[in-house]
């Protein structure tokens, strides 16, 4: 199979099965048929079963296909790339510490705190930031398909999760939506929520700094090529 087509196939399967299984009619029927916990198990197995081949296909065919853009020579773009990666790491860790109430096992809440005052979907924003960072540095067709997949998953996944939780929870989640924003910082700029010193995710920032330093130092050893390359 053509390398770009192989990457596209597995990326499409990974994203497509995510959205297919979480679509309300299909999800509701499967939960009624087998129960909520078995459904989560199947969902996780399908995700792992498509994610691993997607990563393997990309690893075997990195930089496959035509070069669509090349921004590596621009220091400002490289700086933006690392800024996006640093943000992605902070959002990811902060989202694990203080998850969106729509996440599995997360506590319910009407008012946001911490990272949720910046964005109600820190984990999805982390995927988007990760994808955008690598898109800037990797303009080959196969790379673009692979990393764009994370952006699509983050954007559509966050929007879909909001709609599903609105149907399931109703007024409490609607109140949470009114006080937060998907786009980072928008709720703060619109004064829908107020930031306080106690909201600063210092643990996530510290871990983000440590992981960023490790990535800069060992990226070529772990992934080959230059950092973000």
Shape field? globular
- What is the quaternary state of this protein? single chain
The helix/strand series, from N terminus to C terminus, equals HHHHHHHHH
Mean pLDDT: 88
Outline the fold blueprint.
Blueprint: H1 3-22, H2 24-34, H3 36-60, H4 75-97, H5 122-137, H6 141-169, H7 171-179, H8 186-189, H9 202-223
Helix pairs in contact: 1-3, 1-6, 2-3, 4-5, 4-9, 5-6, 6-7
Written description of the protein model:
The structure is a single chain. The chain is globular. It has two domains: 61 residues; 158 residues, no CATH class. It contains nine helices and no strands. It has 229 residues and is an all-alpha fold.
Task: Record keyword descriptors for this entry.
single chain; 229 residues; mainly alpha; 2 domains; 9 helices; 0% strand
What's a quick, concise take on this entry?
The chain has 229 residues and is an all-alpha fold. The chain is built from nine helices and no strands.
